Amino acid sequence: MSRIEKDVIISVLIIAVKEEKVMDIYLVRHGQTEWNEERRYQGWKNSNLTAKGREDSKNLAQSLSHTKFDEMYSSPLGRAMETARYIKMGREIEIVPYDPFKEMNFGEWEGMLDKDVKVLYPEEHFNFWNKPHLFKPFGGETFGGLRERVRSGLTELIETANGEKILVVTHTFVIKSILSIVKDYTIDEFWSPPFLHSTCLTVLRVDEENIETIVEGDISHLD
């Protein structure tokens, strides 16, 4: 992405912010799942949270228990919705399913073990993890297509959400896409730090002048 393209994207996001409005968007990766533990590609398919995933979600919920969320959104996939329900605790707020923040679609790889994908699709497996700008999916999304979907979803969220603190429970590739937009990464830099552990917390601050990260990949609730 060129500097001009990045400036245009950020300008669109900022225009979406109401005048004198400051919004903190809390981005949470869902808890560990059975397929995470087995190293299977999930994508738009789903597997249940593990005992660790549930416990980590409860710990994050406790750490956020005094945060007054005005609205709560979640990827519609089960693992994200379950994590969101733990964080909701006793709050009388609806969890709104948000399709633009579904995980990347991995096509034919969904449900497959990483070791099997590496054997059957060696070139694209390498590109996926090392040269994402060259990755060609088998029935799924490209990294560029994913980022465009997420960019549109982020713009819409900023424009339509009401309140100062917004919770969004989503997935690694969505959060990485958002970071790539905000931090001016190109697609080949998609896997730049931080590593996003299960239930990690990233916070965006958006106002009429800027959008920036104030927390990235935090897992202090797991200490």
Description:
The protein has 223 residues and is α/β, with parallel strands linked by helices. The chain has a single domain, classed as Phosphoglycerate mutase-like (Rossmann fold). Helices cover 39% and strands 15% of the residues. It is built from eight helices and six strands. It has a six-stranded mixed sheet with strand order 3-2-4-1-5-6. Helix 4 links the parallel strand 2 and strand 3. Helix 7 crosses helix 8. The longest helix is centred in the C-terminal third of the chain and has 18 residues. The radius of gyration is 17 Å and the shape is globular. The N and C termini lie far apart (37 Å). The model has no long low-confidence stretch (mean pLDDT 93).
Protein traits:
Rossmann fold; 223 residues; alpha/beta; 8 helices
Number of strands: 6
Under the CATH scheme, which class? Alpha Beta
Provide the structure class.
alpha/beta
Helicity range? 25-40%
Gyration radius, rounded: 17 Å
Q: Any guess at the CATH architecture?
A: 3-Layer(aba) Sandwich
CATH superfamily: Phosphoglycerate mutase-like
In CATH terms, what is the fold-level topology? Answer: Rossmann fold
Main sheet? Answer: 6 strands, mixed
Secondary-structure topology with pairs:
Layout: H1 3-15, E1 23-29, H2 34-38, H3 51-63, E2 71-74, H4 78-88, E3 95-97, H5 114-120, H6 122-130, H7 143-160, E4 165-170, H8 172-182, E5 201-206, E6 211-218
Parallel strand pairs: 1-4, 2-3, 2-4
Antiparallel strand pairs: 1-5, 5-6
Helix pairs in contact: 1-7, 3-4, 5-6, 7-8
